[in-house]
Amino acid sequence: MSLMTAETFIELRRQFHQIPEPGFAEVKTQQLILSYLASLPSHRLQIKTWRTGILVKVPGRNPRRCIGYRADMDGLPIREETSYGFQSRHEGYMHACGHDMHMAIALGILTHFVHHPIDDDLLFVFQPAEEGPGGALPMLESEPFRAWKPDLIFALHIAPEYPVGTIATRPGILFANTSELFIDLTGTSGHAALPHRANDMVIAASQLAIQLQSIVSRNIDPLDSVVLTIGKMEAGTKQNVIAGTARLEGTIRTLSAEAMEKVKDRIKSIVRGIEVGFGCEASIDWGANYCQVYNHPDITRAFMEWFPSETGYQLIKCREAMTGEDFGYFLSEIPGMMFWLGVETPYGLHHPKIEPNENAIPVAIDVMTRYFHHLSGNHRPAQP
Ligand SMILES: CC(=O)N[C@@H](CCC[C@H](N)C(=O)O)C(=O)O
C-alpha cells in the first residue's frame, strides 16, 4: 500500500487511541467510524448501526457469497503510561489491547475494497464490548447481523511478542474458554484493637485467594491447560477498622469446556469452606463467559498455505494461548479464522506502557486485501 494511504490509517489509529471507551459506551468511537465512512463514496457502502457497533457492507460485482471481517472497539480501565504525544484523553481508560489498531486496519481494508470491488460481498463488523461484558454474542443474534450474516469470517489480534511482518495462527483452538469471576464476602467490621468482636474479611479473602490457587495445581490434570487469576482484591475502609466486606475479581481460562466446569465446581466448594470456616456470607458471580476461539481447520490450513507463497511476510504456526476473545462466538456459527499480527513491543497486552509498532497496520491491510482478492478469485491491482 502507498505510504500516503498507510499514514491515513496510522492517523486514524491515533485518533481512536485518544478516545478509549468501555464496552457498550463506544459512542465517540462509533461516531469517528461513521464520520470516516461518510468521506467514502456512499453508493459503494451500506451501513447499519447496532447499539454502539456498526455493520458495513461493501457490495460485490457479482456476489456468490459474503466474506466477513470483524474488529473490536472498546478500551480498558487502565491509566496510560506510554510516551505517546497522542495519549488517551479519557482519564483512567486506555486502548491497551490494540482495538485502536484493529479498527484502523478494518477501515484500511474496507477503503481498499470501496475503490477496488471484488465479485463477493464484504461485511465489516465493528463490534463493541470485547473486553466485557461481550458484544459478539448479542451482535451475532441481532436482527441487523442476521440479515447480513456472512458465509465466512476473519479477524486478527495484535501480538506484542512477534516482529512486524509476522503473523501467527493455527488450525483448531487458538484462544481459551473464559469466565469472569467475582466473589463477595460479608463478615462483621469492628475496632482494629478488638478482633474477637469482629469477623475479619481481609483474612478470609487472603485465605480464599491462596486456596483458589490450589485448584490448578491439585485438581486439574497436569496435561490440561487452566489459568485462574485474581486480578483485583478489595477489602475494608480504613487501617484501624477491621474489614467487614471483601471482594475478589478474577478470570478463569481453560482449553476445554469440561475443565471450566470442574474449576467452577471447585471454586464453589472452596468458597463454601470459607463461609463455614470464617462464619461469613459469600456470593459468586461468573460475569461474562466466552467460548474458545476455534479456527476452522480447512480454512486455516488453506490460509496458511496461501500466505507464504503470496506475501513477503513470515508465518508462524503458534501454540494455543490462554487469552480469550468473544470472536469465538462468531466462529461457533460461521466458518473462519483469527490470527495474531506481530506488533513487536516489549510490553504485553493490557500493560499501561504498551506501544504497538504502527508499521503493522499497512502489513495487515496488505495481507487481508490480498487474501480477499484471492478468495474471491479476483486479481488484486498492483497499487491499492
Ligand atoms: C485478547 C484479550 O486480552 N482478551 C481479553 C478478553 C477478556 C474476557 C473477559 N473479560 C475475562 O476477563 O474473562 C482477555 O483478558 O483475554
TrEMBL record:
Top-level class of the enzyme under EC nomenclature: hydrolase
Database matches in Pfam families: M20_dimer (PF07687), Peptidase_M20 (PF01546)
Listed EC numbers: 3.5.1.47
Molecular-function GO terms, alphabetical: metal ion binding; N-acetyldiaminopimelate deacetylase activity
Keywords on record: Amino-acid biosynthesis, Diaminopimelate biosynthesis, Hydrolase, Lysine biosynthesis, Manganese, Metal-binding
Domain Peptidase M20 dimerisation residues, every copy: 183-272
Residues that, per the record, bind Mn(2+): 97, 99, 131, 157, 350
UniProt cofactor(s): Mn(2+)
Cofactor detail note: The Mn(2+) ion enhances activity.
Classification via InterPro entries: AcetylDAP_deacetylase, Amidohydrolase, Bact_exopeptidase_dim_dom, Peptidase_M20, Peptidase_M20_dimer
Function, in words: Catalyzes the conversion of N-acetyl-diaminopimelate to diaminopimelate and acetate.
Classification via HAMAP family: DapEL
Name under which the protein is recorded: N-acetyldiaminopimelate deacetylase
Species whose genome carries this gene: Lihuaxuella thermophila
